[in-house]
Design a protein that fits this description.
six-stranded parallel sheet, Quinone Oxidoreductase, Chain A, domain 1, binds NADPH dihydro-nicotinamide-adenine-dinucleotide phosphate, 326 residues, 2 domains, seven-stranded mixed sheet, Rossmann fold
Length: 326
Amino acid sequence: MSNPYRYILSKTGGPEVLEAELIDVPIPGEGEVLIRHEAIGLNFIDTYHRSGLYPQPLPSPLGTEAAGVVEAVGPKVDGLRENNRVAYFSAPLGAYATHRTLAAERVVKLPDTISSEVAAAVLLKGCTAEFLIERCARVEADEPVLVHAAAGGVGSILVPWLKASGAIVIAHAGNSRKAATAKELGADHALCCPMEELAGQVRAITGGKGVPVVLDGVGAASWQASLASVARRGLLVSFGNASGPVPPFSALDLLKAGSIFVTRPTLFDYVATPEQMQAAAARVFEMVASGAIQVKIGRRFPLTEAAEAHRAIEARATTGSTVLIP
Ligand code: NDP
């Protein structure tokens, strides 16, 4: 498609409900900029919006993250000009598009060294790693941390970021190839055993104690393994539902697991203000510039093949980040 277009959800369901529609290039209003997208980040959350797990008023645009070029600036915008290279995440949905307008305060300026593809691959997932490690779990040096889906988009940033923080990384992934990827990313231990065996292996590695922190974006399928892997008075951070939402549990389960703490955070509460968002993005760019994290783009899909990209991520067939190119 050479004309401007966007994706719109008129109903929820499988990848087949993704529909593209032609649009007029929007005009930025007060405080807004018009962005021509060069790359769009695929995030698992896009599938939750599409399936209805995270309900949206319909019809709804789709997509949370993109990077590109400012093509027009509305009235009362400070600090952004035409041709600035920018990216955003955590805005209202609508990133699956060739063009969109957005509040300027939600936009991050890109350093010259960060391409649009890299920005779309790293910004939302990197800011997730930043808040999980540095502000939610506050991981300390020498602490063993269990990371699920360690070769995935968020996982492949969590592993090197944790290593850079001095943690001992116990990575888990769905197959041996992905476990090898986690090892290359710096994991101290890279496991791919069935979930039922995971806690036993984690306890073997930690001298029976378990880990003080579990970072779990898998959800339903890993919940029991995570509970059984946490050390006494440790923290289970359940931050995603890739295999489905965590089933209801009893407070007594937390007692039985060793007086543990559980939190179910979302990035959007950790970048709730423009200042928090800019600070998180700056920290991610710093980690990229220092070489502590290397952005791994596993696959690129044309935006017109967004449905295929959804099928791939839901089938566990992606590693690292996936970007959609308009
Ligand atoms: P990923 O690239 O990590 O893809 C999901 C991975 O989950 C798969 O590759 C797979 O890895 C694992 N998985 C395990 N079981 C299943 C299953 N039944 N179906 C599909 N995948 C499964 O995606 P993202 O990096 O985009 O996101 C990772 C997680 O982080 C998601 O749950 C997402 O919602 C969450 N997230 C949460 C945020 C927050 O603010 N709370 C922000 C950003 C992401 P393997 O085969 O190795 O097990």
